[in-house]
């Protein structure tokens, strides 16, 4: 399969307040973010010309930057409008949207008090994170090599680039073994999340999902909880032990990229995509395309 590199594409990227040709949106090799992971980002999707939960994503971007001790030099409304205009400039109505903010190259070292803060927004076609046919049957997850860290060891409430290093390693190892993704435990041994998505389980018609106390309380996660409650389903947020997983009948993961994706296997545990998983997958698809009201 031919892969088009992300640095060699047609189009426009919003960079520090202006549009630049895609191939010219570059940073220096001594950019602080590349050496010390001082960057935060968001992942958003536009459906039918509207970015789902745009302001919620932008507000989280600003909150993440604050946690990493830097200030984004724009307002939330300015970034919202820049995201929409980047989609328009590239002629896209259904796409993925990636805002990112980072420390520049004025200083290189652990201390970076005087670095300039840069912001960029890129958009591109990204139809489905997982194979659509496999998604209906349920994807296979391995167990991740690394665990989500304690909030006393890392800024786990931020969507920060550095926190995804262990996700990339874990997903690569899973894919090498024929899995679609990996499920991570947290530092205590509780079930946490997949490498880029939150997870839900079903037992006797009740939804169970891990308490997000050391990983992101995803925007899609919150939407799915609301959708489940609209269906009259009970949703329990709690700590879930790995050995409990044999008691669940269904499993699915949720996220901006993953949307709602049923899971058929997590390591030694098996699940069958059923009514709840498939109904919420359909509900979410209708919601983001404004065919369903999110109460």
Summarize the structure.
The chain is an alpha+beta fold and 295 residues long. It has helices at residues 32-36, 54-67, 76-89, 132-137, 165-176, 219-230, 275-288; strands at residues 12-15, 18-21, 39-41, 44-47, 50-51, 95-103, 117-124, 139-143, 181-185, 191-194, 198-203, 206-210, 235-238, 250-255, 259-266, 269-270. It is globular, with a radius of gyration of 19 Å.
Features:
single chain, 295 residues, alpha+beta, D-amino Acid Aminotransferase, Chain A, domain 2, 2 domains, nine-stranded mixed beta sheet, 16 strands
CATH architecture verdict of the largest domain: Alpha-Beta Barrel
SS-based class = alpha+beta
How does the major sheet shape up?
Answer: 9 strands, mixed
Rg of Cα set: 19 Å
Uncertain regions spanning at least 5 consecutive residues: none
State the fourth-level CATH superfamily of the largest domain.
D-amino Acid Aminotransferase, subunit A, domain 2
Average pLDDT number: 95
Notes on the structure:
This protein has helices at residues 32-36, 54-67, 76-89, 132-137, 165-176, 219-230, 275-288, and strands at 12-15, 18-21, 39-41, 44-47, 50-51, 95-103, 117-124, 139-143, 181-185, 191-194, 198-203, 206-210, 235-238, 250-255, 259-266, 269-270. It has 295 residues and is an alpha+beta fold. It folds into two domains: 12-124, D-amino Acid Aminotransferase, Chain A, domain 1 (2-Layer Sandwich); 132-288, Alpha-Beta Barrel (D-amino Acid Aminotransferase, Chain A, domain 2), CATH 3.20.10. α2 crosses α3. It is globular and about 55 Å long. The mean pLDDT is 95.
């Amino acid at each position: 399969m031919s892969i088009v590199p992300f640095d060699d594409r047609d189009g426009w990227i919003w960079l520090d307040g202006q549009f630049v040709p895609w191939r010219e949106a570059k940073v220096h090799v001594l950019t602080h973010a590349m050496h010390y992971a001082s960057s935060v980002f968001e992942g958003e999707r536009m459906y039918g010309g509207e970015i789902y939960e745009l302001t919620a994503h932008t507000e989280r971007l600003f909150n993440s930057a604050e946690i990493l001790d830097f200030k984004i030099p724009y307002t939330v409304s300015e970034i919202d409008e820049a995201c929409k205009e980047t989609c328009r400039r590239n002629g896209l109505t259904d796409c993925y949207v990636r805002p990112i903010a980072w420390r520049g190259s004025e200083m290189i070292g652990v201390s970076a008090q005087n670095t300039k803060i840069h912001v960029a927004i890129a958009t591109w076609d990204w139809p489905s994170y997982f194979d659509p046919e496999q998604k209906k049957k349920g994807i296979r997850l391995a167990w991740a090599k690394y665990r989500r860290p304690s909030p006393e060891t890392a800024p786990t409430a931020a969507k920060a680039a550095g926190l995804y290093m262990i996700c990339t390693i874990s997903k690569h190892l899973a894919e090498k073994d024929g899995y679609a993704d990996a499920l991570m435990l947290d530092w205590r041994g509780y079930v946490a999340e997949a490498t880029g998505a939150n997870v839900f389980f079903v037992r006797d018609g009740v939804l169970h999902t891990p308490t997000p106390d050391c990983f992101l309380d995803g925007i899609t996660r919150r939407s799915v909880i609301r959708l489940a409650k609209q269906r009259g389903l009970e949703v329990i947020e709690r700590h879930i032990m790995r050995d409990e997983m044999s008691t669940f009948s269904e499993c699915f993961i949720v996220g901006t990229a993953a949307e709602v994706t049923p899971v058929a296997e997590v390591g030694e545990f098996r699940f069958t995509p059923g009514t709840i998983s498939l109904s919420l997958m359909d509900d979410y698809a209708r919601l983001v395309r404004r065919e369903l009201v999110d109460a």
